[in-house]
Design goal:
GO molecular function: calcium ion binding; calcium-dependent phospholipid binding; phosphatidylserine binding
Keywords: Annexin, Calcium, Calcium/phospholipid-binding, Metal-binding, Repeat
Protein name: Annexin
Number of helices: 20
Structural class: mainly alpha
Helix content: over 70%
Radius of gyration: 21 Å
Number of strands: 0
Shape: elongated
Pfam families: Annexin
Low-confidence stretches: none
Distance between the termini: 19 Å
InterPro entries: Annexin, Annexin_repeat, Annexin_repeat_CS, Annexin_sf, AnnexinD_plant
Length: about 325
Amino acid sequence: MSTLIVPATIPSVSEDCEQLRKAFEGWGTNEKLIISILGHRNAAQRKLIRQTYAETYGEDLLKALDKELTHDFERAVLLWALEPAERDALLANEATKRWTSSNQVLMEIACTRSSHDLLLARQAYHARYKKSLEEDVAYHTTGDFRKLLVPLVSAYRYEGDEVNMTLAKSEAKLLHEKISNKAYNDEDLIRILTTRSKAQINATLNHYKNEFKNDIEKDLEADPKDEFLSILRATIKCLTRSEEYFEKVLRLAINKQGTDEGALTRVVTTRAEIDMKIIKDEYHKRNSVPLDHAIAKDTRGDYEDLLLALIGHGDA
């Protein structure tokens, strides 16, 4: 589901490439022209633009953009211009290099992409970095984080709606037992979260709530300062209510002293063509402010214009 505002008549790919070339010529870069093209093209169109640009001008469009643009605007344009799998591979690689126990980007990619999209991201990672994502995650993490993240990024979950209710009941009981005993890193708990389909996990957690009168996330708040519990709660949220997870990332990125442009750019560029409308509704409901107003208040210039175009803001 795309929320991009696409003009009624889209110029040909060669026209787009010609206009982009013009944006780089003369005195200074024409950032508005770049936004008017790339900010209003879907993933398939952007891929064609990159291919045609390389064939026509003998230069990678990403390199041309990299030379011409700067700061947050450059980062947003470059992430947006990448194919989704390439983008995920890049974000995952950056997350392994800057791993901290509160870095949830690896979990976010593993839990909010479809099985197929996660597989494509792993293939893109192979192609780009000449090693596997699993290998880098295992190398850069330790202890409980490694125990959770390696199977998460390796997962290929069943995507259908079929649910085994007997299994949901027995696994709800198992989860409650482990959490009651504070065995948060237990193999069975991690196995359930890293292998079961999202539909099955939902059924299990619904049964957990009905049977034990508490949300599992509440039971995992035993120690608010425990960063492993924090990533476990975020894992559950990403698997069951990803729009709430992304709303929170955006809220924290915008509503604090100084904007977290990294998180803001990541969520907008990765979700614009997926579920941004749902995330926007969730943001408005939670904060009583439309997301485009919050972004406009917190960002400036070309960076602001591009983000507003990507979230489907009518005037962008």
